[in-house]
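Example 3.2
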Amino acid sequence: MKNIIAKHKFCWVQKSFLISAILAFLLLAGSLTINHAADNYATKIASNGVSDIILDNVPAMDLDGIYIYGAILFVLFIASLLVWEPKRIPFVIKSAALFYLVRAIFVSLTHIGPVLVQAPPSSGILYRDLVFGSDYFFSGHTGLPFLMALIYWENKYLRCIFIAASLIAGAAALLGHFHYSIDVFAAFFIAFGIFHIARRWFAKDYKLF
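Structure, written as tokens:
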């Protein structure tokens, strides 16, 4: 515990780090707001659902627990990593902000309607907000863990954990009929591109890794 506190004291007293971290959280808040607006927009003007080679051949399964609470555990895990190594806060948060901004752009451009065969809807507000909108392309549940795998690639254990989380989330999205197949498979490629953009745009923060 003393070691963690010492790390935070060392980082937060540096003006450059403080400014970068504050900017990172502001960017994340802004991108999440834009992403939420894009979700609402896409849901409001969504067209009809379309057929899908995987979803048409796999029955919808009740995986809302994995999909929702798995995402919550993932966020808490990321938060714990950043508490442990505060010097990584600016790059991780800015990369996540860029991820959600890019996703908002894609969501606002694609207005495909709901998956034709879905699992029975839950009465939970959180469940409805995260699953039953029309913000399909691309899957954030799949793409964000893979982005973290790329960011933490040098750490073999974290890399494996994040890749596993991405694959589990992608499988749950398909088996639960929460996303179309293209939403899940494209997420890996888009996350890869976002990582390289973030590494170039936020080069000073990336050096802290």
